[in-house]
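Troubleshooting: if your tokenizer reports a length mismatch, compare against these two reference records.
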Amino acid sequence: AGMSVLDHAQEHMELRSVIACVYQVNTELQFAARNNNIDGVRSAIEAGANLNTRDDDGFTALMWAAVHQSLDMVQLVIRHGANPNLLDEHGNLIEGLNPDHMACGESIVEILGANERLLAASRAGLWDQLDRELRLGAWVNVRDETRRIALMWAGRQGASAAVTSLVGKNGDLEARDAVGWYTIHF
């Protein structure tokens, strides 16, 4: 049968609780990024923060990393899926960036290139190239258009040494692709 008024009220309260938790972790991310606190940013990411959330000034965590010229924070947020541009909500380059800040943009390009090369090498079975791309800043759990990570491609191709290596580098065994398959399914 259907839900009672009490059931709907309970569901509504649960949703409000979830929304409050999401808001809190996003606020923690924004505060940490604004204050150049990489450990706080890392903690917020682990808690599920949305890396593309903008603060009251319209800045994302990546934008604050560029302002602070923190290449480590740039790498961290890009590797975890932050939108890689430094544009405000109107599509303009954020104000106040000087050439030193733009060096972060070069780092973003390098990391994104490493991510793309990591996935291409994984799809092609070029396992000797993975370590190099990871050293250049690629994220071990970066996803392709089918939501597969390098670990899934290694599993699909039966490359046990590559699977072992990627798991040792924190490859996500719980990751699912667009169809819902885990690495173990391959």
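Reference record two:
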Amino acid sequence: AEEARPAEEEPSRVLVRGSGQPTTVLQEEAKAEMQEARASAVQRQGEAQEAASQKRNELKESVEAAIEKQLQAARSARTTALAGQVSKKTRCEELLAELVPPLPEDESAAVDPKKGKKK
């Protein structure tokens, strides 16, 4: 079926392959090189896709970590602000209690709420 000699002897020698199509040694070598190049390109593409996927995951994790850090900072600032408000309110109540002593029970009932004077 196949009549082939080494490529060094007769590179343009016509061969007949199993398909019955005539071909030369150079054509066969070129075909083999193309198949190798395709396989190599497919492998490189797969590696590039894997690297891109890994980089994308790293960036996603980095962004998520940055967002979480900002959320924690915002929560901390909010907690601090609320604590400050509570502290101010407590201090205001203390000052008010010092400046305006509470009315005795019987006098508070005798004060007209509209005029602020005793009935």
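Descriptive notes for reference record two:
- The chain has one domain: 14-101.
- The helical segments are 25-99, 105-110.
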